[in-house]
Each structure stands twice: as structure tokens, then as C-alpha cells.
Design goal:
Number of strands: 2
Strand content: under 5%
Largest sheet: 2 strands, antiparallel
Distance between the termini: 77 Å
Number of helices: 5
Length: 92
């Protein structure tokens, strides 16, 4: 944090505050990256928050698989087009 020196001349205040700012991290000193090297890790915190664990890959179902799953939940024991040429439902 900047030091307030009441009786010091403005150039001394500026120099002292500049020296104190050198201990800060670049993200605390600047609003945007100042070098190409800083650009690499500047937004790493946001990327880390969005990053999924390597074990969080959930399978997504196709429209056909969603239909089949919904059908089997609504009609347990029934099979759609099971060996029927007419396309009617078949009960076990």
C-alpha cells in the first residue's frame, strides 16, 4: 500500500511509493500484462477455475440413445420392433 508522507516533497513520495510497489506481484501492480512472458500466465487463475478434473468426462447421449433410455424407463419389459415385421410392440 502506498505510504502517505505528509511533509515530504512530491518527488520523494513518488520515489518511496515506487520502491514499495516493487515487492508486489505483477497482477497487483498492473491492470494488463506488460511483457510477452507475463501474457502466458496472466489469466491462468481463470483458466484453472474452468479446468475440469481429468476424471470428469461425462458421456453425452445421442438423440437415439436418449429415446431408447426414456422408452425403457416408461415401458419396462417391452421391446420396440423385436422380431416383428409389422413394427408393433412385443411384450415378454
Amino acid at each position: 500500500e502506498d505510504v502517505d508522507l505528509d511533509k515530504a516533497p512530491p518527488d520523494v513520495k513518488e520515489t518511496i511509493n515506487a520502491m514499495l510497489r516493487t515487492n508486489r506481484l505483477p497482477k497487483d501492480k498492473y491492470d494488463a500484462p506488460m511483457t510477452a512472458a507475463q501474457e502466458v500466465g496472466w489469466y491462468a487463475d481463470e483458466a484453472e477455475k474452468k479446468k475440469k478434473s481429468r476424471f470428469q468426462y461425462h458421456l453425452s447421449l445421442s438423440e437415439e440413445a436418449k429415446f431408447a433410455e426414456a422408452y425403457t424407463l416408461k415401458h419396462p419389459g417391452e421391446f420396440l420392433y423385436a422380431g416383428q415385421s409389422s413394427g408393433k410392440f412385443f411384450k415378454m
